[in-house]
Amino acid sequence: METLTTYRQRIFGLDVVRALAIILILCSHSTLLLFPESQSNIVKTIQFFGTIGVDLFFVLSGFLIGTILIKHIENNKTSFKDFANFWMRRWLRTLPNYYLVLLINIGLILLFNAELPNQLFKYFFFLQNLSQKQPDFFTESWSLTIEEFAYIVGPVLLIILGIFFKRLNKWSFLVVSLLIIASAIYHRFLFDFNVTVLPENFSWSKSLRKVVVFRLDSIYYGFLGAFFGFYYTNLWLRFRFVSFIIGVILFVVTHVYILINKLNPDSFSTFFNVYYLSLIAISIVLTFPMFSNWKSNKVLLKPITNISLWSYSIYLINYSIVLLSLQRYIQMSELSLIGKFGVLLLYLALTFVLSYLLFTFFEYPILKLRDSKRYKRWFKN
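^ thats the sequence. predicted structure below, dont judge the formating
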């Protein structure tokens, strides 16, 4: 099987980001499998790796999609048909896997005689967490909803600007990106300002971090990275080391501040509600000048590329399908440390094997069709 692009065509540093993101998520979910009731600070810290992993995905996705949209603008391909082609390519990348895994999750719920969520239909239209917390079903789908809306909102605003100003340019792209970022921050501020009586067992992650209207900015910080990387390439390259160091320092200082002040997102902290997610996204995008120019490493090239290629399948399969199924059949509290280690190996093995099969026999053929001459001829007509 050939990769979607040759190793030379792929950007190794961005594959590293994608691989790192999914590894952080797997580390986080592993603690939920092995120590579901643990209140250990170490376990809680590792569980928070998942937050960072998803934000890496968000910023990376914004960077890549933003670059595609910039090329649309520069090539004057900004008609509705051009953007429709963009959406079709995106949806062929994301929707088939999503709907297949959604149906598998529904099948597992019926198999286990569990209760399906109310308004299940929302999952088919990516509405399950638009402005409210998502039910505890197919929980990893929250991030896909945010991405799908990000892919729609930006181009729609660009189309509207194009109608008024006849021609789009780089400043149109920048204005749209900044408007969406400002809107998400504004909605988080309103959330923090208006919620005066907290519900019992308040969860910052479910009520804010995983809700579309509060999170679109994370992807659009990636758009800003694409803007500077494309239009100010010389500065992007010249200051890549400085930018990387600033990004790392900002990331570390942010978390040191949390530790020193003993901040807890579930205690309804204004810092977490309004500022934290933006600071993390900014710190990540500041590392992209370095990552986007990281040349391939012969030793790591193949494993990093493969993990990167499988990452979407891994993300969809590892939790609801593998982890929750294992938890139904295995009582982790009754196992020894060696037993838990064995379950961890089983969890990782099943995740990677099933993800490989999903990618190889379902995701990859669809992507090949999307990139085929037949598809391109069909869409030009």
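Residues 12-380 form one domain.
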